[in-house]
């Protein structure tokens, strides 16, 4: 029988199937961080349960951690300490702050080669979909499910539907993976993927670097999808080979044979198909308070009255919150802050692209520019290439790894009313700090915007 | 988990679409180590507006939330469910509930009720006209009712049984420990181990 990539990975992990019940799936890797896990560990303690597979569980600290030399706020410090304590008590490896492997969970696991094709990966964070870029089936779970996975190394889930998003054609020079996924979400909406695993397919997806695929899969959840995946190919294998946790020697050969069988069979049917033409894409900027509310950088703030009934009221509320007037060209909107970071866009490639734009230029006066590498490993790599110097010389702050201004859980937040061009994945009200206004963009557009002082693409600077 | 057979109570007409979990409970509330105490953070930013429906004394004590499409999207934070429970809510009725929120809700005895947009609109009209309107959700029958309104909602048998009987998920799974052990023995050798 012909099967899709996600169906194959799903079927391989079914521990138990019974009529009228969700499948019980085995979890190959459980990633844990300080914010959504304390109550799960407390639950284990109360029930006198242990962690079934500490060797398949990895913890780090990312959401709450300071990214400068300041100590963590007291309440955050308690959570960071709880993570360290729980890791010790339950025998879990943890990369704490200060460790060279510390960073955003969704950056460190692929970087270390822990994220491999065909695996099931869960984490108490919705952006776990990121790992699908390598051909893993990965999704975010809540704290009760974290406790369940810790205790049993399994998770009970109803089988998702399958959805193909096929992007053919060649991406224009100024467009990045971020523009592809923002374009997809603009097309299918924030609930367009609900109940489904999206498989990103087509020439434009295959042409992307692994970093680009990670960006795309990362934002699957912004389309409401259960997960996002890209079939592993030679690019995936080349990227993975030699990473610390990747199989070595004979095991590598065995793994390769297996991974090559994962791609969707020709003739397999998806429950839903969507097609996009990459050559028609442009750099995107969100104007609203959900990731589907976007226009291309050549566009203008839309008039809610011209939008379909279903989205009009949300658009009105979003424009009030964002303090924007319909008809304003995006390039005329000034910003107060630029954030280059997050599990969407804080890998080495992202930083290289942004650095190339700002090299020899200065951040517009009055703008706060923050570069927060996705992991301490990325930070070290970037510094070896001198990227930190380029950012610092341009007037950016160069920080340690963490989630930082993506979700405003540490002191890196916007002040009320401040407007930010952000390479992160969510532009919800107050996401980057109460009253803050977020516009999602690619690293290239974020960098150009920091220089221009208003939304801009790199070619606007020349 | 306590068994949840039915929810009978008044309803709050939030009636907004795309209510993400950052709005339900902002991130700075996620620094707590407990499962309780999140009620004051529920819709914290919107609550600052005196005209926000949660501040309307006519709806005080409501246990059912009426929302627009795509309720609970975004972050996986279970704290969103804890905040709703802490503030006295027991169920949400919306045309569509996001997947992770739905899973989290079911594991806390908070009932996600998906009905068509027209039914939600009728319920919103009814409680706006008369805030004392009683809405009844029967979990075993998967029905929602109010005077002159009746609809069924999708709830798989397994979730229904778990809610009605208040079953502990982990204890349920541990009954199949043998299956897990057998599965583990067949996993490929090359799969990574963290330690």
The number of distinct helices of chain A, counting runs of at least 4 residues, comes to 15
Chain pair with largest interface: A-B, 84 and 57 residues
Tell me the distance between the termini of chain B. Answer: 34 Å
Main sheet specs of chain B: 4 strands, antiparallel
- What is the straight-line distance between the termini of chain A? 55 Å
Query: What portion of residues of chain A belong to β-strands?
Result: 15-25%
Look at the structure and give the CATH class of chain B. Alpha Beta
Sheet having the most strands of chain A: 5 strands, parallel
Number of domains of chain A: 2
Widest sheet, order of strands of chain A: 5-4-3-6-7
CATH architecture of the largest domain in chain A: 2-Layer Sandwich
The string of secondary-structure elements of chain B, in order, is: EEHHEHEHEHEEEHHH
User: Quaternary state, please?
Assistant: heterodimer
- Low-pLDDT runs of 5+ residues of chain A are none
Question: From the coordinates shown, what is the CATH architecture of chain B?
Answer: Alpha-Beta Barrel
What does this molecule look like?
The complex is a heterodimer of chains A (462) and B (195). With 462 residues, chain A is α/β, with parallel strands linked by helices. Chain A has helices at residues 5-12, 38-46, 74-90, 105-111, 143-152, 177-188, 203-206, 210-218, 234-240, 249-259, 309-322, 348-358, 376-384, 387-394, 443-452, and strands spanning 14-16, 23-26, 29-32, 57-60, 93-95, 120-123, 137-140, 154-157, 161-168, 196-201, 227-229, 272-277, 284-286, 294-296, 337-340, 368-371, 397-398, 419-422, 437-440. Chain A is 32% helix and 17% strand. With 195 residues, chain B is α/β, with parallel strands linked by helices. Chain B has one domain (6-167): Aconitase, domain 4. Chain B is 31% helix and 15% strand. Chain B is built from 8 helices and 8 strands; from the N terminus they run ββααβαβαβαβββααα. Chain B has helices spanning 21-24, 44-47, 79-86, 99-106, 117-129, 157-165, 169-174, 177-185, and strands spanning 6-9, 11-13, 64-66, 91-94, 111-114, 135-138, 143-146, 149-152. In chain B, the strands form 2 sheets. In chain B, strands 1-6-7-8 form a 4-stranded antiparallel beta sheet, with helices on one face. Chain B has a 4-stranded parallel beta sheet with strand order 2-3-4-5. The longest helix of chain B is centred in the middle third of the chain and has 13 residues, at 117-129.
